[in-house]
Amino acid sequence: MESDECVIVLGEDVGAAGGAFKVTEGLQERFGVRRVIDTPISETAILGGAMGAAIAGLRPVAEMMFVEFAGVALDQLVTEAATVRYLSRGQLNVPMVLRTAVGGGQGFGAQHSQVLDHWFTSSPGLKVAMPADPNSAYHITRLAIWDDDPVVVLEHKGLYGDRGEVDLEEPPWAIGEAVTMRVGQDVTIVAAGAMVSVALAAAETNPGWSADVIDLRWLRPWDVDQVLASVAKTGVLVTVEEAGPSAGWGGDVSLTVCQTLWSRMKFPPLRVTTPDAPVPHAQELERRFLPNAEYVVQQVSSLLETGSVPLPWWEYR
Amino acid sequence: MSIESPEHLRRRGLASDLGRLKRMIEIREVEETIQSLYSAGEIRGSTHLYSGQEAVAVGLASVAPLGDTVACTYRGHGMALALGMEPTAVIGEVCGRSTGCVGGIGGSMHLCDPSIGLLPTFAIVGAQIPVAVGVALASAYRAADSVAWAVLGDGATNIGAFHESLNMASVMGLPVVFVIENNLYGEYSPLRWTTPLDDLFRRGEAYDMRAAAVDGQDVHAVAEALAEARSHAAAGRGPSLIEAKTYRYSGHSRSDLGLYRSADEVQTWVSRDPIGILAERIWPEGHSSRLSEMVEQVRSEVRAATEHALRPMPPIDKVEMLRHITG
User: Fold this and answer.
1) Which of A69, A150, B96, B279 is the most buried (most CB within 10 A)?
2) How far away is chain B from the Cα of A11, in angstroms, using its nearest Cα?
3) pTM summary value
């Protein structure tokens, strides 16, 4: 915002209140009410407004307080903003960002705890990212703002409290680029968002196997090459998603890997997901619902020992 | 001095009443051509014709300077022509030819030409309304004197996007003009089946917005009302809601013959045809022969444009459908 006046922020309570999760805290004081705009509770007007302002040359960063709220306005993003470049044959483009809070673990219940990445990843014209830590939140958000297309940044609520170093000197990252967080031999674990720390914690428990842990960072486009290179080495693919098994990115990654490396894969791919059910509120239920390091270890170990995909933990009484 | 594009010259052509009349005739002729091309199997998908509503688009285009942005509905052939798009580009696009405004990639519902301020026309009812608000937000942010236009049908006043947009534009005081083309039917349903009001401009009251109705068949009345609304917006005094009372001569889309409307009703509206009204005003005496003359001239121009649009061309490059998805 300091370097380009075209960058504005808009959303519900992003200004005076600093955002429901305080992500935009202090911005309005610093950049003024013209650039940090408190809007009515009108998601369609927020996303459509961001789209129009972006077509007209601004770089709006719109916030949806919870990703579920974007459902009210999905048309503006997936049908309108995502097709403007195509329908104008590249004469127009939409450099807008949608930032939104996703994920469970805090007891927000069924309607404020989903990730819903698949609402966005199936739309040509959009780019979708999921930061896993403070450093990636910083670099991904900058990439998203400078990109000339609509970008969705899915910020996990459980990560807002994380503290970590941000490397301001790093050269700019590339859109769609994953990062290998840990190197191993026996299995490739691909994760995104809050599931990256779950996968890392699992790999660090000394489980009797060692893993490449890849933070995908971007769900669309995603880093096919880096994932394939790892699975070519390990012969085993595990994806860890905070979402049910239906229409998740883990399915796409698994299929692409199987189609390319079929003969080199030792076992069928394992998708660690949540149950195909709404997110429960009660703490003991939500804990059992979400993947954690213990569940990941148990699932991966079972795959490596038996050679077949185990029953998920929630199926055991 | 740079040479003006044909589209820009066409826009300037609306400064005179003869220019406006000719453009309204052109819109009518293009729509009739499209109807017959559809019957001849030249057009795929859907078409939504504008015949009967010409005074609204021409009135708007004659008061919107280049630099303004128009977010329009899928019933957009008339608006595109009014803003300056050539008939060849409209007909080519509707027919899925490389001669179309976006090379046949969009079709009838997705006409676009940024050089005349036309965003890709929107095929989802009401979707264009908040986008116009966003364009106005950028205009206000830069203290530019451009104005955004949201063109919508009566049916769109029942969709959430309309209400969110009016509310936000009003509370932020943005330079946008909302133009309702009230043609009395939301797809196949008469307005009163779906809406508790006949006068849709009254919806502006709820948002403390300047609002008025205008005779949508009278291009002078439309232009005057929209020019006032535009000045109001450009002066930083906020948005307006203008309802143009008009009528769609054809059904909602190509598959709709409009049989739910009585012959009397249609006749009443046809007797107030926007082309006839303006012709009478230009030529108080003996207008019908001069009008016929002009119609003949425009008809032959549109025929030539149609031949040009449909002329044999190399097939559209198959790679086109994979281009311009992201940058």
Assistant:
1) A150
2) 12
3) 0.96
